[in-house]
Write a structure and sequence with these properties.
The protein is an alpha/beta fold and 209 residues long. 24% of the residues lie in helices and 36% in strands. Helix 1 crosses helix 3. The protein is globular.
């Protein structure tokens, strides 16, 4: 059976630099009826486990270590035995949320994660966070962008550990080079496509945020 993409929205808070905001997060589950990976274990381990059903969880892949994307990861790992994977450059952010629990493995640029016969390639796309990554699955015609690229522009860069010129470079060099029909599945909000976002790069640069 070919891999499919399941979508769950969980709700909680994002906290950084002394501020707290209510947020809804997209949780993406990629797999078949036997095994799956979770992209960003946000807020609610019980809801994510229920969406997995009886499938074996191969890995919990974190696109970056802002707390709203990783807060449920240790609980989900504890109940499933799945490893938590994170890019090493985001360890300082991770430790703000989970100082007593380290990730189980490190994501690296170009690494390939295989689930249900489908390959997802790790693209290191710093800017929103130093260790931010996207996961490109050409067989599914999609890229999971976390908070790097949204419908309407780049992720926020106004807080600690972020940088606007860096995220623009990441999007230009790593994402806008993908086929235009590639579906962009984001960390929050609606999906879009590479082709829909590519023409607006100069506008984003002019806005400078």
């Amino acid at each position: 059976m070919a891999a499919r993409i399941d979508h769950l929205v969980t709700s909680g808070t994002f906290a950084l630099d002394g501020g707290t905001w209510d947020v809804d997060n997209n949780v993406w589950i990629v797999g078949d009826d036997t095994e799956a990976i979770v992209v960003d274990a946000a807020h609610d381990a019980d809801a994510i486990a229920a969406a997995l059903g009886g499938r074996r969880l191969v890995a919990i892949v974190s696109t970056h270590a802002h707390n709203d994307h990783i807060d449920a990861a240790p609980a989900l790992a504890a109940r499933t035995g799945a490893p938590i994977l994170l890019h090493g450059d985001d360890l300082p952010l991770w430790k703000q949320t989970h100082p007593e629990r380290s990730p189980d493995g490190e994501l690296t640029d170009g690494q390939v994660i295989t689930v249900a016969g489908t390959e997802l390639t790790v693209l290191h796309t710093p800017g929103h966070a130093p260790g931010a990554v996207c996961l490109y699955a050409p067989g599914l015609g999609t890229v999971f962008t976390g908070d790097t690229l949204f419908q309407g522009g780049p992720g926020a860069t106004g807080r600690s550990f972020s940088d606007f010129p860096t995220i623009v470079d990441s999007i230009r060099d790593r994402l806008l080079t993908l086929p235009p029909e590639t579906v962009v599945r984001t960390g929050h909000g609606d999906s879009t496509t590479i082709g829909a976002e590519a023409p607006h790069l100069d506008e984003w640069i002019a806005r400078g945020h």
